[in-house]
Every structure is written in C-alpha cells, then in structure tokens.
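Convert to structure. Protein one:
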Amino acid sequence: MSARLGEVFERCRAEGRAALVGYLTAGDPNPEQSRALLLALASRCDVLEIGMPFSDPMADGPVIEAASVRALAAGTHIADVFEHCRAVRQANPDLGIVLMGYANIPYAMGFDLFASRAAEAGVDGVLIVDIPPEEGGICDASFRQHGLDRILLLSPTSTDERIRLACDAGSGFIYYVSLTGITGADMGDITGIRNKVAHIQSMAGGMPVCVGFGIKTPEQASQVAAFADGVVVGSHFVSQVAANSDAAAALAALSASADAMQAATARETAV
C-alpha cells in the first residue's frame, strides 16, 4: 500500500470511523467547473476517486455514464484529468487520490507513460475496472515502478480463490461491489454485505476493504461504516452535479451532500 493511502486508513481507524471515498468524473460538466467541484469534494473526503471520462463504460450506470458524456462533449482529455489531480493534490497533501476508469485510456497512452504522469500529478492508486488480476501483467510492473497501488474489485459472487488472487495482486484497498449490477443501482441486503466483507477482511491480511455501488443516503453510509474500512459514494455525488445546471447551486448541493455522508461515517452513530 502507498504510504499516503495507508496513513488515510490508519487515521480514520484512530478517529473511530470509516474512510469516506468520494467519486466524481473529471471534466463534468466542463473542465473549469469540474475543478471547483473536485476541490470541494476533496476537502470533505478521505479518498477522492477521480473518474477518467470514457465513452463506453461497462460497470457504470446511467448517472456516471451521462457524466462521462458531458465531460467528453466539453472537450475533456486525459491531460485535463492529470491537471485536476495536480490541483487537488496541491490543495490536499494528505488526501488519498485514486484514478478510476477503463483500460482503453492507459493502453492507448502506454502504461509506463500513464503511470508516470499519474504519479507526477500526485495520484496514489489506480482502479482499472476491466483489467482483472489475471491480466495484470500488462500494467502491474508500470504501476509498481511509479509507486501506484492497483486497486482491485470483488463482488458478491467472488469465490475464495478469487478473493485470494485479488488480495495477493492488489494493494491500497479492496473495492467490494455490494451488488451484482452497475453503479447507482439499489444497494444489496446489508446483512449479506456485512458477512461478505467480514469474510474478505479475514483473508485480506490487513488490507482495507471499502464498500461501494448503491450507497445513496447517509443512513446507508452509516450502516456500511459500522463494519467496512471505507464507504464509497459515487453516483449520489455525481447526481448533485447533474441536478443543478447553475454552477453555484451544484457546488452547494455537492458540499452539503458530502458533509452529510462524512458525518455518517462515524462508527459511534452507525446502526
């Protein structure tokens, strides 16, 4: 695990809460407004996932897919994404920053150059949805060389063999997908999620396990914070941007939503 991500989770544990992992798509609704939104969310989260806009997502639901469409239509390029990361890092030296996206972007750019640019911009880890651990040979060495964690996904259908593989091949944290579906769908049964996360934690050797997909309310975040190392909120935050065409209103709605989610991560208030 990168030193910074490790410190984030240690700090959250010491404070008796789960880490809040917030997601926004870079460049949504346009590069200039996106910078302000990312900075606002970064100041209220422990880890910021910055989405690299892509035209053909596989795991993302309609809310995040629409954010990518808006970002691309506004002319967002990967160079803009790196500049957003750099600005967020300069303003938040202790924040965890993770780039999230699909393999086409780093593959077309070249994994070595992509990893180098990401590290220079202050990124700590990368989550490439469509590169499973079995295919990590195309990118793992590049990410390790530049000190980037490769965050891997597990799901309700993951077998023990696959859990072991992800825990051995990944670093930073495990991203547990709480449902068999796309981002923004309804969260699964909380008891089932709790049991699966406990099982993964027992095999993860201390690597944090964060839960995402379907967390839309502070109440759900509080439930997950009671047992997970981190709570991932994506579509809910993106929807605050989509629902407000006025830049000031979008910023205010996102900030209020993030404040509520952050408050819900305290384990003393979890139910």
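Protein two, convert as well:
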Amino acid sequence: MLVFILRRLAQALIVMLSVAFIAFMLFQYVGDPVNNLLGQDATEDQRIALRKDLGLDQPFPVQFARFVGNAVQGEFGISLRQGRKVSSLIVERLPATLELALVAGLIALSLGIPLGVYAALRRGKASAQILMTGTLFGVSLPNFVIGIVLIWIFAVELKWLPSFGRGEVVTFGSWTSGLLTRDGLLHLILPAFTLSAFQLTLIMRLVRAEMLEVLRTDYIRFARARGLTDRSVYFGHALKNTLVPVITITGLQLGSLIAFAIITEQVFQWPGMGLLFIQAVQFADIPVMAAYLCLISLIFVVINLGVDLLYFAVDPRLRIEGKAH
C-alpha cells in the first residue's frame, strides 16, 4: 500500500509540474501583462520598471522556478482585470463552486444508483423502459439547454424557484455557504439539477449495465443455489461488485462537475470559479486562467488518488494481488 501511494504521488507530482509549465507558458506567449496593466499611453521607462518589478526581465528558467514556488504557496500574481490577488479571488469563488458541485454529485449518486438498480432488476418492464428512454435526454442534451428549460418551467412559468445568483449566504470566516438559508437552498436547486443531469444518467446507465453483467456470473448462480433470498443476492453480492467500476466513474465525474461547471454557472450567473474563468477569458486575464487551470488539475489528481485507494477498500482481489507481489 505504501509503495502504491508513493508511486501515485510521484505521478501526481509529474502531472502538476506539467500543468504548471503549460500555465506558465500562457503568461509568456498569450498577451503582454505590461500592456494590460499600464495601457498604450505608458512611457518606455514605466514599462521597463514594471517589467522588472514583475520579474519578466529574468531568464525563462528563473521565471518558471519562481512561478512554481509561488504556485506551491497558492500565489498566482495579480488579476489584470480586477487588480486584486488571484488567490483572494479564488478563495472568494471556490465555496460557491464546491457547494454546487457537491450537491450535484449527491443528487447524481442518490438518484442514479437506485434508479440504475431498479432498471436492471425490472428489465423489460414498461417503467424501466421509460427510465432508460429518459436517460437519452440527459446524455444527449447540453447542460445549457437543460438549464434554460428548467428556468423556463420553474422560474418563468411556475415562478417556484429563482433563476440566477446564489441568494442569501452564511459566512464562516473566509467560507460562505447557502446551504443554511432557505433562500440559498432555493437558488441552488435549479443549477444543481442542471449540473447533475449528465452525471445522473451516466451513473444510472452504468449501474444498470454492470448489474446485468454481474447477475449473469457464476457466483450469483451459486448464491441462488444456496437458497439465499433475492434481497441478499441483489444487494449483498451483486450490488457490491457492481459499484467497483462505478467508483471510478463517480470519482472522475466529481472532478468534471467542478471543472465543467463553467456553462452552468454562466447560465445561472452563479458566482463561482467557472464564471470567474469565463470573465477572465473575455478579458485575457492570464493569471486567473493559469490559477484556474492549476487548481482544477490539482482537484483531479487528488480525486484520482482517492479513487485508487477506494479500490482497495471495495475490491478484495486488489489486496490479494498486492500481497502476492
């Protein structure tokens, strides 16, 4: 286990250094921060002084080493659009994105797994066919279309839910949460369901397919021959083995929820990192774009490591193979 963790950490370090290099290249070759900060009317002396203050007059390896050192400390410079430290902007926006992604993930898991099991156990029934037909909409429709439809139904026509913003939040130091207020929860419903739509249908279809595959295996037939009840066979044996590949997909999808919440945040004007990134792209705010890229990569690396470790807890075959080696 220790060797496995160390190997994964080494791989994660290589990935993060590669991402940091790509992000640093953005600073070098996409626009000139000096022009963005000073404007076209600045004198040459002002440009030279600012370039020196920013360390842009140093050789490439020195600049990259400084960038990596600052990134390790969570510092990515000053936003060219807002004139504030990028780290402070990330701290402000991160709670909203994490809250949206976690709630969307919980919705996808809490509905996707039981509905997938139901569709597998009721294969051929009308209710299961209707569920599987519904998943085609979740897989094929883009998030922004689902969001617009939900806004039209629940915000415009029925006037049950708000259509934009985060609503009232509670502050805990630098952290904010809308989960503790009624207004915050109401504002969260539509974007969370919009963001979870693809993941929910993906998990449901995966669970159904894996469940049907497991139910055809020999050890399930042996369990039935022993006289075990259907409940014990389905939920004590089949479901546990079904969840092994689901863990992988779910872990990766949680990272995707955070990374690709951009469109949902744009549609609902949700004040998270995705909306900040869209605004940064429109202004060519390279420090913010680089910080977002590094942070999302770190989230994916941590999630992948967690998924790998969960394999050992769920699948005993991996522990046996590890001891054999």
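The radius of gyration is 24 Å. The mean pLDDT is 80.
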